[in-house]
Task: inverse folding
C-alpha cells in the first residue's frame, strides 16, 4: 500500500520526553512492516532557534494561529516551517502521518502542513487529540485542515485499530476523508489490552529531558495505563473527549514497560493517563506486579515511574498505598490541587479537603514521593478570601521543598475556560459571558455572579501568586514572566476593553 | 513561626549529659538528658537575617568517663546529634555538618558526636524555610546544572513582576 512514511509530531509542547503519538505511529508502522522516519517538529524548532527563542515561540503559537506583536518572531516561525518541510519532503515519503497532542499544537500543525503541501502532494493523515478538538467555528481541527486541503485523511478519536487497518488499505469509520461531508468518530475501544504497543526504537532520547527535581531526566517513556477519567472536574475537557474510563490490566502495562526496558534500556516511565490512580484496584495491582518483577530481576530495580495522581481522602488512600508506591518505584506525581480554598475545589468537583491535602503530604514525606503541584488562579467563583487561601497554601507547604516532597508548581496562566467542559456549560448558572468564544477562553470572559473578578483582577491575582511562589522558591516548568511580558499588550487591550468606564461609554454611544 | 527540632542519642556514665541551648547568645533552654533518645525544639521567631544556634555541653567531669586498667574507655557520657527538622521536615544530612564543635580552643568542623565540655555552633538565616531551600539548592547545584534561578536573577524577576503590577494598577477597573 505505502512504501515509506514520515511520522511527525507537531510543535508546542514541553520537551520532557518523546511524544507518545510518535511511538504509537512507529509501533503501527513496524507492525505492518512499513519503513518510516521520525520527525519531531518541536525538537527541530528548539534545535534551530535555541531554547530561549523556542520558549517565546511556544507562547505565540499557543492557540489556533500564531499571535504576536513581534513580526520578526512570526517570520522566524514561517522560516522554520519551510526548512522543516524541506527536510520532511527530502525523505521522499508516500505517506505523512502527523500527530497533535492538543489544541495548543494546531497552529504549528496548520503551518507545517501548509509548507509540506507547497512542496508535495504526498498522502497526509492526521490524528491525535488536537485534531479532534472543536474549534471556534464548531468544526474539528481536522475538518478545518481538510477544508484548507492540508490533509487527505484525519482520525477522530482512538486511532489504535483504524490506523493499523488504514496502512493495510482499509478505511474504517473514524478515518475521515477530506471530502467527506459528515464526520465520523472511532467508537471508543473497550479493551485496551489488545492494542499494538508503541516503539521508541528510532527515537533519539538525547533530544528530550527537562530539569524536574534537580536532575535532568533524559530517557523517559510514556505509558498509557488508562484512558478517560473517573472525575468530571469542571475545568477539564477530558470527559468530553473520552466518555468512558477504561484501563489496561496490570500484566499488560508491566509487559509494556519490560518491552521498552529490553529495547531501549530506559528506566524512567511516565504514565500519561489523566490519573494513574483512577482505578485504585488497578493501581494497586500495577504496583504489586512491578514490585514482583523488580524482586525477580535485579536489573529492573532502578525502574521508576511518575504520572498524574488524584489526591483522595485518607480512607481511600491508606498508608499501604504510599508504601507500595515507594516499593514499586514511584518517583514523582503531578497532583491537581488547583486551589487552596475548599469552597473553590468543591465547585470544581475535586472531592478532597484541606485535611486530606495535609495527610497526603505527610505520607509522601514519609515515603519519599515527590509532588508537582498543579494550581489555578481566578476560577470563576473565586473570592478574595479564596485567593488568600491559595496564597496561604503555598506559604504553609513551602517547607516540603526542603526534602523534595514538593518539587515544583505550575502557574501557566489565569484560569482558561475551555469549550466542552462542565464549566463552559455552566455559563448561564455562573453568569459567565464569553466574548468572541474561542476553544480556550482566558481573558475574554466576565461573570455577573462574581463581578469583582474582572479581567484586571484576574491578572492581579495571577501576578500576586507568581510573585509569592517565586519568593518562596517554588520551581516551575513554565515561566510566568515570559507569558506576561509577551502578552502585555494583549492583556492591556483586554483590560481596557472590559473596563467599567469603557462599557459605560459603549452604552452611551448605543 | 517555625520550629527547629534536633534529635539526639545520649549515653550516661555516672549521670546524664547536660546541654544549654542558646540563640544569638540568649539562653533558650537548659536541657538535662534523662534517656537515650531525646530532642529539643526551638521556636524560630526572629527578625530576618543571620543567627547562631549554640549548644553548650557542660558539667562533665572525669567521673563521667570510666576507663579500664589499660586506659581504654569502657563507658562515657556522650551526646550525638542525630537529625535536624524544620516544622517536622527532616533536613538533608549535610545540614548538621554545617555546625562546628569547639572545645579546649580546638575546632572540629562537622563533628556531631560530643564527648567534652564545649560548644557546637550552627549558623542559620531567617526566614529559615527559604534559607534551607536555598541551601539545599546550592548543594544540589554542586553536582547538577542549576534548576532554580540565582538570588540575583530572582531579584531581577521580582523587579520585572513589580513593573507588571504597577502597569496593572494604572489600568482602569
Result:
Amino acid at each position: 500500500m505505502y512504501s515509506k512514511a514520515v511520522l511527525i509530531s507537531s510543535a508546542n509542547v514541553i520537551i520532557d520526553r518523546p511524544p507518545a503519538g510518535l511511538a504509537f505511529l512507529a509501533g503501527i508502522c513496524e507492525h505492518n512492516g512499513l519503513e518510516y522516519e521520525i520527525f519531531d517538529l518541536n525538537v527541530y524548532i528548539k534545535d534551530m532557534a535555541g531554547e530561549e527563542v523556542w520558549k517565546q515561540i511556544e507562547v505565540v503559537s499557543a492557540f489556533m494561529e500564531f499571535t504576536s506583536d513581534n513580526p520578526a518572531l512570526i517570520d522566524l516561525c514561517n522560516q522554520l516551517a519551510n526548512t522543516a518541510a524541506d527536510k520532511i519532503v527530502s525523505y521522499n515519503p508516500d505517506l505523512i502521518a502527523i500527530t497533535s497532542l492538543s489544541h495548543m499544537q494546531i497552529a504549528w500543525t496548520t503551518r507545517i502542513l501548509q509548507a509540506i503541501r507547497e512542496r508535495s502532494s504526498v498522502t497526509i493523515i492526521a490524528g491525535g487529540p488536537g485534531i479532534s478538538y472543536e474549534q471556534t467555528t464548531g468544526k474539528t481541527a481536522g475538518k478545518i485542515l481538510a477544508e484548507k486541503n492540508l490533509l487527505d485523511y484525519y482520525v477522530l478519536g482512538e486511532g489504535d485499530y483504524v490506523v493499523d487497518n488504514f496502512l493495510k488499505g482499509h478505511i474504517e469509520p473514524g478515518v475521515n476523508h477530506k471530502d467527506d461531508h459528515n464526520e465520523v468518530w472511532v467508537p471508543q475501544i473497550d479493551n485496551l489490552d489488545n492494542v499494538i504497543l508503541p516503539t521508541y526504537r528510532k527515537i533519539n532520547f538525547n533530544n528530550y529531558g527537562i530539569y524536574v527535581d534537580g536532575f535532568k531526566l533524559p530517557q523517559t517513556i510514556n505509558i498509557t495505563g488508562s484512558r478517560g477519567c473517573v472525575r468530571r472536574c469542571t475545568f477539564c475537557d477530558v470527559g468530553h473527549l473520552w466518555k468512558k474510563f477504561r484501563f489496561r490490566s496490570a500484566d499488560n502495562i508491566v509487559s509494556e514497560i519490560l518491552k521498552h526496558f529490553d529495547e531501549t534500556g530506559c528506566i524512567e516511565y511516565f504514565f500519561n493517563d489523566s490519573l494513574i490512580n483512577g482505578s485504585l484496584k488497578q493501581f494497586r495491582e500495577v504496583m504489586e506486579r512491578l514490585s514482583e518483577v523488580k524482586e525477580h530481576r535485579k536489573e529492573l530495580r532502578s525502574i521508576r515511574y511518575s504520572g498524574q495522581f488524584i489526591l483522595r481522602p485518607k480512607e481511600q488512600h491508606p498508608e499501604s498505598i504510599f508504601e507500595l508506591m515507594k516499593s514499586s518505584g514511584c518517583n514523582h506525581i503531578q497532583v491537581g490541587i488547583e486551589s487552596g480554598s475548599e469552597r473553590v475545589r468543591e465547585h470544581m468537583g475535586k472531592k478532597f479537603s484541606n485535611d486530606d491535602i495535609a495527610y497526603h503530604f505527610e505520607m509522601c514525606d514519609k515515603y519519599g514521593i515527590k509532588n508537582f503541584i498543579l494550581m489555578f488562579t481566578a476560577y470563576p467563583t473565586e473570592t478574595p478570601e479564596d485567593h488568600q487561601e491559595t496564597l496561604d497554601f503555598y506559604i504553609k507547604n513551602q517547607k516540603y521543598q526542603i526534602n523534595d516532597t514538593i518539587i515544583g508548581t505550575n502557574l501557566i496562566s489565569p484560569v482558561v475556560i475551555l469549550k466542552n467542559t462542565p464549566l463552559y456549560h455552566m455559563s448561564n448558572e455562573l453568569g459567565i459571558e464569553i466574548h468572541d468564544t474561542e476553544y480556550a477562553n482566558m481573558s475574554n470572559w466576565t461573570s455577573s455572579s462574581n463581578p469583582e473578578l474582572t479581567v484586571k483582577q484576574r491578572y492581579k491575582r495571577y501576578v500576586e501568586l507568581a510573585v509569592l511562589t517565586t519568593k518562596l522558591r517554588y520551581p516551575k516548568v513554565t515561566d510566568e514572566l515570559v507569558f506576561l511580558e509577551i502578552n502585555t499588550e494583549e492583556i492591556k487591550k483586554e483590560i481596557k476593553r472590559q473596563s467599567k468606564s469603557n462599557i459605560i461609554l459603549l452604552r452611551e454611544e448605543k | 513561626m517555625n520550629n527547629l527540632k534536633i534529635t539526639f542519642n545520649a549515653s550516661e556514665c555516672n549521670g546524664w549529659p547536660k546541654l544549654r541551648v542558646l540563640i544569638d547568645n540568649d539562653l533558650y533552654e537548659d536541657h538535662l538528658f534523662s534517656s537515650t533518645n531525646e530532642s529539643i525544639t526551638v521556636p524560630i521567631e526572629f527578625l530576618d537575617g543571620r543567627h547562631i544556634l549554640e549548644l553548650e555541653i557542660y558539667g562533665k567531669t572525669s567521673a563521667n568517663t570510666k576507663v579500664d586498667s589499660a586506659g581504654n574507655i569502657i563507658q562515657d557520657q556522650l551526646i550525638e546529634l542525630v537529625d535536624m527538622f524544620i516544622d517536622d521536615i527532616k533536613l538533608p544530612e549535610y545540614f548538621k555538618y554545617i555546625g562546628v564543635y569547639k572545645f579546649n580552643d580546638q575546632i572540629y568542623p562537622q563533628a556531631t558526636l560530643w564527648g567534652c565540655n564545649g560548644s557546637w555552633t550552627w549558623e542559620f538565616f531567617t526566614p529559615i524555610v527559604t534559607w534551607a531551600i536555598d541551601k539545599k539548592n546550592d548543594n544540589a547545584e554542586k553536582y547538577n546544572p542549576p534548576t532554580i534561578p540565582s538570588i540575583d536573577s530572582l531579584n531581577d524577576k521580582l523587579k520585572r513582576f513589580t513593573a507588571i503590577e504597577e502597569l496593572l494598577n494604572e489600568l482602569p477597573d
User: Anything to note?
Assistant: The interface with chain A takes residues 2, 86-87, 89-92, 129-130, 132-134, 136-137, 140-141, 144-145, 147-148, 154, 157-158, 160-162, 164-165, 167-168, 171-173 of chain B (CB under 8 Å). The domain at 2-140 of chain B is CATH 2.60.60.40 (Lipoxygenase-1). The longest helix of chain B spans residues 151-170.
